[in-house]
Design brief:
With about 525 residues, the chain is an alpha+beta fold. It contains eight helices and 27 strands.
Length: about 525
């Protein structure tokens, strides 16, 4: 028993020693970490001024202009241009950053200022306090890899510091970095009804309000436009956004090329606006409501004045309920026609100057975002569908091919069910004989959905007779004539009215095979009969 007690006491002693050792090691490690952190932290306060005490800040903009921003009644203004649209939050943030400027480290042994471009500073940022004291920071070389600037204070050629670029960058650009820029007018592409681009080889896209299809015009002729291609333009307009703010008050259009614009883009669109309700009470010529008497009571109830207190609570309740109902109701809106006019001026780098509507503000927009709009011509919007007529609207189809002529007639039968609803069934006859529906619809779909590779814009005179001639007559008696001529080794020329489409020969071959299948099946059926 005594031996066990001794062993337990010994174990407790060892545990105490180990705990003490652990505490000592932990304390040592902690102190070492603090020491290393202190050694690693080489930050130095360069400027320490309360931003509330600063009355002005000046700097050189990227174009060499000396910019002075002054504080007037807790608001910042640009000296000599007090109407300049400064963004107060942006200015305050920049001033706060430079007023409490801390260097990441002090550069030791810095005797040659030219080594850091501080012999001829790129910029000087001067903070003026209300008491007249000024502090000037001279900015030298930028270390792009570390995102730091070499700087020094004016009058001190011995102490050079490395500071984070985040505090200096706001003052290294244009004064427009501090401007309150407008956003590009928001236009939803689906609400655009017309787009006109005035430039060399310009065009106009117009949406049909009934079919919602698009037409394209060059001012001389109008043609049906491809819906997808027109949609690319409306989407491009709906996605436009400003890049840089350049001029808040343009008084010389020639400076940006607006006196002879590269292009003018006009987009017409619709917008829903809430209808303002007229809440004024109708009054008679005496200025009182028609139902009010001299004592303020209702003309219909002479005792209303005496009973006002009894009924007032009920009236207030009713009014409150009516107000709640009004809040729940959707506001009434009307569709309003709007217009967006974009003046596109000269090129600058990879952008172009623009201004919108009657605004004098000038911005840039990237050329990439304008490419689809400005580089397109009328020909780019041509609908390349050779011809299209729904089979449900087809009355007859005459086919001339290989020296033969065949006619397909659509037979419609209408029946009425017990509920009085009508149903139309379709069948087809080839040269007066009933034919297989699948054989006909397979051929008709290949012919009717033919898409061309391109459309010819020059005159075309066929050298040979057509390989195929299709005459479609719809249920209203309108006729569509399509002729296919061999054009070259790769294409057929499909001629519809005065339009000439180049169609891939492989697609025509598919149509031809379906045609021969249809005619062959019909001949077989006739022979069996």
């Amino acid at each position: 028993m005594k031996s066990k007690t001794v062993k337990m006491i010994s174990a407790v002693g060892v545990l105490v020693v180990l705990c003490g050792a652990y505490a000592g090691v932990k304390s040592y490690v902690s102190s070492q970490e603090e020491k290393e952190a202190e050694e690693a932290d080489q930050s130095v306060d360069v400027v320490d001024i309360s931003s509330d005490d600063i009355s002005s800040v000046s700097f050189l903009s990227e174009d060499g202009e000396k910019v002075i921003l002054e504080k007037e009644d807790d608001s910042w203004v640009k000296k000599d241009q007090t109407d300049f649209p400064l963004d107060q939050d942006t200015v305050n943030s920049a001033v706060n950053g430079i007023a409490a400027l801390t260097a990441d480290q002090k550069v030791e042994g810095s005797e040659d200022l030219s080594e850091y471009d501080l012999d001829k500073p790129e910029n000087e940022i001067t903070l003026a306090a209300e008491d007249g004291e000024e502090t000037t920071i001279q900015v030298g070389m930028k270390n792009d890899s570390a995102s730091q600037y070499y700087i020094k204070k004016s009058g001190d050629d011995e102490d050079i510091y490395l500071v984070s670029s985040s505090s200096i960058d706001p003052f290294m650009g244009s004064v427009y970095s501090f401007a309150q820029a407008e956003t590009f007018p928001a236009v939803t592409s689906s609400t655009i009804t017309d787009v006109k681009v005035e430039k060399e080889n310009g065009y106009e896209l117009s949406r049909d309000s009934e079919t919602l299809g698009w037409d394209v015009s060059d001012g001389k002729e109008t043609d049906k436009a491809d819906t997808t291609k027109a949609g690319n333009i409306t989407s491009a307009i709906g996605s436009l956004s400003y890049e840089d703010f350049v001029d808040y008050n343009c008084t010389d259009d020639s400076k940006y090329g607006f006196d002879d614009p590269y292009a003018v883009i006009t987009a017409k669109y619709t917008e829903e606006e809430e209808v303002e309700e007229d809440t004024d009470t109708e009054e008679d010529s005496s200025g009182k409501s028609e139902t009010d008497t001299e004592d303020g009571s209702s003309a219909e109830d002479p005792d209303a004045g005496e009973d006002a207190e009894e009924t007032n609570t009920g009236e207030e309740t009713g009014t409150a309920e009516a107000s709640e109902d009004a809040e729940d109701e959707e506001p009434e809106t009307v569709t309003v026609d709007k217009e967006l006019v974009i003046y596109v001026g000269d090129q600058t780098d990879d952008s172009r100057y623009v201004k919108v509507n009657d605004s004098n503000e000038v911005y840039t927009i990237t050329e990439d975002s304008l490419t689809d709009i400005l580089d397109s011509t009328m020909e780019d919007f041509y609908d390349l569908t050779v011809s299209y007529l729904s089979v449900n609207n087809l009355e007859t189809l005459e086919i001339e091919a290989g020296g033969e002529t065949h006619e397909v007639e659509v037979i419609r039968e209408t029946s009425e069910d017990e509920d009085g609803e009508e149903t139309t069934t379709y069948s087809y006859e080839l040269d007066g004989q009933e034919m297989d529906e699948t054989d006909f619809t397979t051929f008709y779909n290949k012919m009717n959905n033919m898409i061309a590779q391109e459309r010819l814009t020059e005159d075309y005179e066929p050298e040979n007779d057509p390989s195929y001639t299709f005459t479609m007559i719809d249920t209203d008696g309108r006729e569509t004539l399509v002729k296919y001529y061999e054009y070259d080794t790769n294409f057929y020329a499909a001629v519809v009215d005065d339009k000439v489409y180049l169609v891939n020969k492989m697609n025509v071959r598919d149509m031809e095979e379906a045609y021969e299948e249809m005619i062959g099946a019909s001949d077989t059926d006739s022979a069996e009969e």
